[in-house]
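Aggregate trends can hide what the representation actually does to any particular protein. For completeness, the protein is quoted in full, as a sequence line and a line of structure tokens.
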Amino acid sequence: MKIDWEKAIGLTAAAAMLLPLAACGGSNNAGDAKSGGTEDVTLSVWAPQEDQDGGNDSWLSQVEANFEKEHPEYKITWKNDVLSEGDAATQVQTDPTAAADVYMFASDQLGALMKAQGIGELGSDAEKQVKEQNGDLEVASVTGSDGKMYGVPYTDNTWFMYYDKSTFSEDDIKSLDTMVSKAAVAFPLNDSWYIGGFYDGLTLFGEDGTDEDAGMVFPKDAGDITKYLVDLAANPNFHNSADNSGLSEMQAGTVKAFFSGSWSAADIKEALGANMGVAQLPTFTVNGTPKQMKSFAATKAAAYNPNAKNPKAAAQFAAYLGSTESQKLHYTVRNIIPTDKTLTDLTADDPVAIGQTDTMANTAILQSGLAGMADWWDPAKAFGDAILNKEVTVDNAQAKTDAWVEQVGSYAK
């Protein structure tokens, strides 16, 4: 899927590539204003419903008003429509020329958006902004297979561990084996976004997720890890979280730990109160060797459409959606945990933010945005189902794992 981007995007997008293109949040580039005057600009924006709830007090309306103050060279007419980050690629691919000028997307869609020629390369200012704000994983999440950057992250998208602090100590939560020896734990083993977390050493299209030729590579001891999972699934203290049943069990008190993301925080806080604990992922032991659970991780990011009528303004606003000021406001208004490293004081007392940040930094691998990731989902779910249905056993675990690996990738050499 290597693309000659300059040829692919044509003259309209080429105009959008002029540097500096996307200014950082506080920049004031008036290069397009005529004779120091005001330029009339219309910007269409796609954002989730929750970011638009509350009218003028919504997060999006406030960010748009702040952007206008930062850019008096523009007189902007806003055209806002509702679209979730997860649906961005589907809509853009339908007709990139009719898509919004600025939109928010899940980073695992990057390959599809590039293929559709519906996402613009960041200019030098925006690229600098992204690198200054974010860790390596976040930067990699918006980097295409061509090595260029195409989005401005504003929050992480991953899963971590919730637990009952009245049941597990801080030492207990370091080891999954210790935890299941003490109390029931819920984990969605037949969810393809989760099961890969046990295959320590798994890589998805290279370390930074952009190497198409590298493919999906499993650790050499994947078969032994499968045997561990067979035994784990048979443990009475292991509860498979099918259709998010782990959350209901946490609320009922029948399990004492649950693996999920920030979207479950409010429900678990209501159930556990002061006993709610949040942490990065634990280790487990296979044949006497410690293994690290690692969640799939991505980001949600803002992008601009290279087909926009006003690509410079669109690129600037996309960068502003992910600016420090906008991320701070996002957390204040909607409790959206920022990726910006300068905002750690803002979330210093938020255990969910700390757990998510620690997971991204220490116990996660990048969920690649390349199209080849599509080969992972169905086989991974089927393998989890097979373990739960006892079709995979200790005796046939290696053969079953070999068949799965052959289907989606290869073993590490």
Remarks:
- Residues 5-157+298-366 form a domain with the D-Maltodextrin-Binding Protein; domain 2 fold (CATH 3.40.190.10).
- The mean pLDDT is 91.
- The longest helix spans residues 222-234.
- The two ends are 25 Å apart (CA to CA).
